[in-house]
Specification:
It contains four helices and eight strands. By secondary structure, it is α/β, with parallel strands linked by helices. A four-stranded mixed β-sheet has the order 1-4-3-2, covered by helices on one side. A four-stranded mixed β-sheet has the order 5-8-7-6, covered by helices on one side.
Length: 155
Amino acid sequence: MPVNFVPAGYHTIVPYITVRGAAKALAFYKQAFGATEIMRFDGPGGSVAHAEIEIGGSRVMLGDEMPEWGNRGPESLGGTSGGLCVYLPNVDEAIARAVEAGAKVFKPVQDQFYGDRSGTVTDPFGHVWTLATHIEDVSIEEMQRRCAEFMKSAA
């Protein structure tokens, strides 16, 4: 039987994030986002060499900083250039749960022109998470029209 090029349980793209304090990050992601820990390989000195969590059917890989291998997290880098987006059934509850777990609100929850209700938080480890609930199907043409209106009002 041939082996699929994507292992069972994974999607084609799987984010891998590096954090300072991966064991604490795993606990945070469980509390804040309802993550399930799939696997964890501990490294020296209580570090986490590699772990995988699942949030709503999607996996995220993570591990502790290992500067000797070039792995540095947002705290060491002074920020991050990317973020993760998670769709959840109730974004308002999800943001409240994330804040209660220790996240800081970056953008408050509000309805978006593209049909989502979303807000953005920064986790205690420097990663940026946009949490969203899809509330309206919007055609690309309508989205473009709304985007143009939004850009005018933002200027």
